[in-house]
């Protein structure tokens, strides 16, 4: 009789319905991967088999859709790979990147599992470099504020008007600046001001006064064609080493320098040194009003030109800043975790590591949107997002479930019909058996 075959069919259909029901139930679960029930016949040493059985429940690790959430700590993986998490001392893997930051600065999911990656080279220095590579560790975002940094490098690109006639006094302007105990008048054709910072993070206003000099091939001193002189004042004061008192004689500015251009308007060099685009600027403690340390900065003028158009500052950057507090973090496509501070500076706190497997279908589901490594999956391959076969990290988004609802509903109808058909087989077998019992 075929009761055993029909019963195996009922059990198989039931298992399939359970799988389909689980898929549908998790259609809104972030990072969920759908499963498919696989069947195999039960072989018997006869022409007629003994029915069917569930041979495997296989997960589909194809990508879900990337859905924007605009929440910085929602992460999605575009491509292959898993987030590496530590939960209760065990490493688990997940595609669900819905994270929060706990009170200690760890990035955790709803189950408390901590995100892993590459941390700082010195755990005791929150502003040390991130070491990419090696063994991943639990990532922690330090809450420490950023200390102030004195300006040590200034990069500027100017155009100084080639049409200026150095011998024409009507084209000159005059500025009066303070020096040690007196004042000094500076005549100039163009000036530019910008902000620098001292060692305490106090902003300091620097003004550079540019004056085109008349050429003097005899000297002394010899002044080549297309030479400009620059004087530098900090907060309206020059760094003057002359005897204190009223001083109107130019040339006593310790930060004074010259720029020489060729006939085509390109910068030859600074202070008569061909090919040298740098000059050192020093602002003493006295000039800074008793600050703890002087400002010693390199002033790089590479790219500065002398063309017949208005004098302008085309570009200026400097590397000093005031102290700042942590105001938030952002996560880049390569997994870098970047801290943003109130002083508009940023600093990396670590880099997320992704893991991949030779056979992801061999991973064991651990619940809570996580999997664990098995012999069938092979060992993990860990690396930086966007390298090798690993996908990139998208912040402000999540990966939706890859369940295809329409397909699941169709498969459920098919499974239901299979269950009904196997039930009908039992009914027919019962009727045949009943007929045999009623034979006289």
From TrEMBL:
Gene3D superfamilies: Flagellar hook protein FlgE. Coiled coil: none annotated. Residues 395-439 form the Flagellar basal-body/hook protein C-terminal domain. Residues 76-117 form the Flagellar hook protein FlgE/F/G-like D1 domain. InterPro entries: Falgellar_hook_FlgE_sf, Flag_bb_rod_N, Flagellar_FlgE/F/G, Flg_bb/hook_C_dom, FlgE/F/G-like, FlgE_D2, LlgE_F_G-like_D1. GO terms for biological process: bacterial-type flagellum-dependent swarming motility. One of its GO terms (cellular component) is bacterial-type flagellum basal body. The keyword Isomerase does not apply. Belongs to the flagella basal body rod proteins family. This is Flagellar hook protein FlgE.
